[in-house]
């Protein structure tokens, strides 16, 4: 089938395109310039550089015309900070596009939609007692994104939101999530790295590509899929990060929750001084960060056809590029909204 994608040059979009093309589909994408130095894109993907937010509905309609599939691999995550209320920024990049793009997709005859979301949405629904949408603008925005997307689903219009966890693997020239971890390890010289208890679900970049392609091919109706394949505690994970950047004997000291909360309060004070807001309430976030945010692969990944991958190698790749960013030896571009 013909598939239109927004964000095809990004870390996740490019891998989804690669997977779709390998399965015989044709992919056309709109993406923001510049292309990261060294980015390895599938040569068969047709790319139009531009900002879809600045395009007319007719221009978007022309891209989607004749397509059966649509992948939204754009938007912004909790790393983006800005003037309060920060929710407005998330609404612009993550929610409003659902109402606009899915309306157009449905009008032109697209049948299958896959959207990159966040596993924070899954835990907001699974743990209502934590009131995550009350305290965290980013998590509220992801739930609202899901609700907007699901409102379009019906028997003739399949919509899948992938609730993605931490993702490992790299795209040369694009800044990884884990620069903060590399900086912390390097500053500690690999000794006595302080980190809370808890852990997370995780997947590789290739597995996200498989999940997006699988959602286009397999999903029926409107569904939100919690995506996880590997589960790892922070105490298991952090030494792998340290070893990847030259500190194989690193020791992790598990701190109590209140110490994490104290650090979070400091971050929020800095935000206030700068007149900005983050997507997460860093004190309340301890309720997530200090617990095991695990997802079984059979909750979504396996159904979508995700296969095993080398998670340790993907972690190592992410950390090596992150360390290069810290040391100034790697030239990268940061995330921005499509």
List descriptors.
globular; 338 residues; alpha/beta; seven-stranded parallel β-sheet
H and E order:
EHEEHEHEHHHEEHEEHEEHEHHEH
Oligomeric state of the chains? single chain
Question: What distance lies between the first and last C-alpha atoms, to the nearest angstrom?
Answer: 24 Å
Helix content: 40-55%
Radius of gyration: 20 Å
Explain what this protein looks like in three dimensions.
The chain is α/β, with parallel strands linked by helices and 338 residues long. The chain is 42% helix and 18% strand. It is built from twelve helices and 13 strands. It has helices spanning 11-22, 57-64, 87-108, 119-126, 132-135, 137-150, 179-187, 205-218, 234-244, 257-274, 286-289, 311-327; strands at 2-6, 26-31, 46-49, 69-72, 112-118, 158-164, 166-168, 193-196, 199-204, 222-226, 230-233, 252-255, 292-293. Helix 3 packs parallel to helix 6 (137-150) and helix 7 (179-187) crosses helix 12. The longest helix is centred in the first third of the chain and has 22 residues, at 87-108. The two termini are 24 Å apart.
In short:
The chain has 338 residues and is an alpha/beta fold. Helix content is 42%, strand content 18%.
Write the SSE topology.
Layout: E1 2-6, H1 11-22, E2 26-31, E3 46-49, H2 57-64, E4 69-72, H3 87-108, E5 112-118, H4 119-126, H5 132-135, H6 137-150, E6 158-164, E7 166-168, H7 179-187, E8 193-196, E9 199-204, H8 205-218, E10 222-226, E11 230-233, H9 234-244, E12 252-255, H10 257-274, H11 286-289, E13 292-293, H12 311-327
Parallel strand pairs: 1-2, 1-4, 2-3, 4-5, 5-6, 6-10, 7-9, 8-12, 9-13
Antiparallel strand pairs: 9-11
Helix pairs in contact: 1-8, 2-3, 3-6, 7-12, 9-12
């Amino acid at each position: 089938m013909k598939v239109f994608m927004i964000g095809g040059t990004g870390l996740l979009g490019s891998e989804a395109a690669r997977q779709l093309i390998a399965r015989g589909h044709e992919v056309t994408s709109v993406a923001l310039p510049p292309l990261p130095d060294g980015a390895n894109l599938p040569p068969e993907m047709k790319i139009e550089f531009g900002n879809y937010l600045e395009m007319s509905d007719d221009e978007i309609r022309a891209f989607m015309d004749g397509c059966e599939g649509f992948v939204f691999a754009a938007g912004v995550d909790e790393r983006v900070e800005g003037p309060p209320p920060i929710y407005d920024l998330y609404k612009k990049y993550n929610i409003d596009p659902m109402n606009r793009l899915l309306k157009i997709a449905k009008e032109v005859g697209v049948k299958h939609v896959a959207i990159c979301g966040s596993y924070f949405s899954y835990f907001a629904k699974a743990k209502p007692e934590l009131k995550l949408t009350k305290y965290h603008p980013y998590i509220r925005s992801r739930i609202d994104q899901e609700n907007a997307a699901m409102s379009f689903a019906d028997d003739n219009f399949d919509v899948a939101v992938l609730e993605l966890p931490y993702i490992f693997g790299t795209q040369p020239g694009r800044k990884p999530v884990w620069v903060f971890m590399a900086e912390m390890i390097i500053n500690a010289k690999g000794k006595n790295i302080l980190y809370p208890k808890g852990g997370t679900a995780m997947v590789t970049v290739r597995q996200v590509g498989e999940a997006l392609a699988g959602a286009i091919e397999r999903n029926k109706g409107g569904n939100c899929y919690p995506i996880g394949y590997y589960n790892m505690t922070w105490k298991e994970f952090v030494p792998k990060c340290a070893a990847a950047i030259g500190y194989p004997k690193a020791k992790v000291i598990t701190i109590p929750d209140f110490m994490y909360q104290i650090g979070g309060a400091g971050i929020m004070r800095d935000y206030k001084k700068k007149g900005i807001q983050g997507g997460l309430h860093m004190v309340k976030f301890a309720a997530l960060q200090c617990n095991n945010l695990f997802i079984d692969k059979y909750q979504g990944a396996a159904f979508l056809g995700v296969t095993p991958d080398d998670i340790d190698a993907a972690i190592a790749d992410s950390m090596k590029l992150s360390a290069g960013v810290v040391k100034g030896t790697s030239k990268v571009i940061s995330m921005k909204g499509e």
